[in-house]
Design a protein that fits this description.
Layout (H helix, E strand, L loop, with lengths): L1 H5 L6 E9 L6 H15 L1 E10 L11 H14 L3 E4 L5 H11 L2 E4 H12 L3 H17 L1 E2 L2 E2 L22 H31 L4 E6 L5 H9 L16 E6 L5 E6 L9 H6 L1 H4 L7 E7 L5 H14 L7 E6 L17 E4 L8 H13 L2 E8 L5 H9 E8 L4 E8 L20
Parallel strand pairs: 1-2, 1-3, 3-4, 7-9, 7-10, 10-11, 11-12
Antiparallel strand pairs: 5-6, 8-9, 13-15, 14-15
Helix pairs in contact: 2-5, 5-6, 6-7
């Protein structure tokens, strides 16, 4: 294995992964497999994986002395550049472990932050990454200096904020305040966009899912959006919104969101809140699931857990089990959270029509079809229908404006005729 690994490109950083299993049936092995994928995305090659079974992580060094020695020997054997721990380390764990092993040590959070730093392309994305990086650094300052100052190059040292990270507490606080102000302005602009969108009757569908589930491939298939679509984790970071028209003329806006992942750092959820909140303001959610992944159930749980953290309310959900062309199991695919489930292959276009029909149906479930001629004296009502409804047909006739539209039940009262009050018996 070692010889094979040494044949890799020189620019690749050589890493060893370390995790702690605290329960008999936990998912540490799958989590390390995912960490390996994260490493690939960050430009690293994994030489070995080490799992320690403990009741709880070691408070001072993350893993016990025996495992530290094992990791140290592997570092020497493979000439590794870096050790990556699967959980977020405390400053003490980080410092002690690095002293013991003698090479750069980072954790899962730093790895994810590094990938986000590489992938951010918009000014908002870059600001969000920098804010998350600064918050992480601030929480890992020990004795007035950053323990990350000895990282050297490679993973954990990249990003929009890389020149600004070696700072004392005061400077970091000042920089955080500045970045927050910049982000607040960006978020204000986003709110304006959202309000304009809400005034527009076209419903918004937020595409969510575990990272690498195929969300971008699906959006590209539907709209030709040209979103970066790679077989890598976090290929898409910045949200993309595109319009799609059904054959019957019905229109939808699809918004892609950043992929979710287990142990998604709190710093990132906070920093990317405005981006992830696209789901909160959508009319429906399209949950894309990679059904070919053996860890599918755990990934679905992570997605719903993250949506709960974002306080996404009772939105109608359509779950699209993607990569059905690779699904070999005989069991039926279920999602108890979803209003509808469909099987699709975003790559080959399989099941897309059924998926669109399902989305259309869940969107209409809370809507009623209103067909009416408004007299020209009721000038305001057609305007209200244009504002709050989805107009399908509109025609100016002699007697008034004929309109056919879908409208949310909550706005139906605006268009109902006032009922003539029936006299009570005592009123004569």
């Amino acid at each position: 294995m070692g010889d094979m690994m040494h044949d890799t490109a020189e620019q690749e950083e050589k890493i060893i992964l370390v995790g702690v299993a605290t329960a008999e049936n936990d998912d540490t092995e799958q989590s390390l497999d995912e960490l390996e994928e994260l490493g690939q995305t960050a430009g690293a090659v994994t030489l070995a994986k080490v799992i320690q079974n403990r009741e709880k992580v070691h408070s001072a060094t993350y893993i016990g002395k025996g495992k530290i020695q094992e990791v140290k020997e592997l570092v020497e054997k493979y000439d590794a550049d870096c050790v990556v721990c699967d959980d977020e380390l405390t400053p003490a764990q980080y410092n002690n472990l690095q002293e013991e092993i003698g090479v750069k040590v980072i954790d899962r959070t730093v790895m994810i932050l590094d990938i986000f730093a590489k992938r951010a392309s918009t000014s908002e994305g870059k600001l969000q990454v920098e804010l998350a990086q600064l918050r992480y650094r601030a929480s890992h300052l020990v004795g007035g200096r950053s323990e990350l100052s000895r990282l050297g190059g490679g993973i954990g040292t990249r990003g929009p904020g890389e020149q600004k990270l070696e700072m004392d507490r005061r400077l970091i606080r000042e920089r955080i305040t500045f970045v927050r102000k910049e982000l607040a302005q960006v978020q204000k602009n986003r709110e304006v966009t959202r309000k304009k969108r809400q005034e527009n009757p076209i419903p918004v569908v937020a595409i969510v899912g575990y990272t690498n589930a195929g969300k971008s491939t699906l959006l590209n298939h539907l709209t030709g959006a040209g979103v970066l679509s790679e077989d890598k984790l976090f290929a898409t970071l910045d949200p993309t919104t595109r319009k799609f028209s059904l054959e019957n003329g019905e229109e939808m806006l699809f918004t892609d969101t950043v992929g979710f992942i287990r142990k998604l750092p709190h710093h990132l959820i906070q920093a990317f809140r405005s981006t992830l909140e696209e789901a909160k303001y959508a009319d429906a959610i399209l949950h894309v699931v990679d059904c070919s992944n053996p860890d599918m159930d755990a990934q679905m749980h992570t997605v719903y857990d993250t949506l709960n953290q974002l306080e996404v309310g009772d939105k109608p959900i359509v779950t699209a089990f993607n990569k059905i062309d690779r699904y070999e199991a005989s069991e039926s695919l279920k999602d108890l959270h979803a209003d509808k489930t469909v099987r699709i292959s975003a790559k080959y276009g399989q099941g897309i029509e059924e998926m669109l029909e399902s989305i259309s149906n869940v969107l209409k479930a809370n809507k009623v079809l209103l067909e009416k001629v408004f007299s020209y004296e009721e000038g305001e009502k057609p305007n209200l229908l244009r504002k709050y409804g989805q107009v399908l047909e509109e025609e100016y006739q002699n007697e008034g404006v004929y309109m056919k539209a879908y409208i949310d039940r909550e706005y139906l009262y605006l268009f109902e005729e006032p009922k003539e009050r029936t006299k009570e018996p005592w009123e004569g």
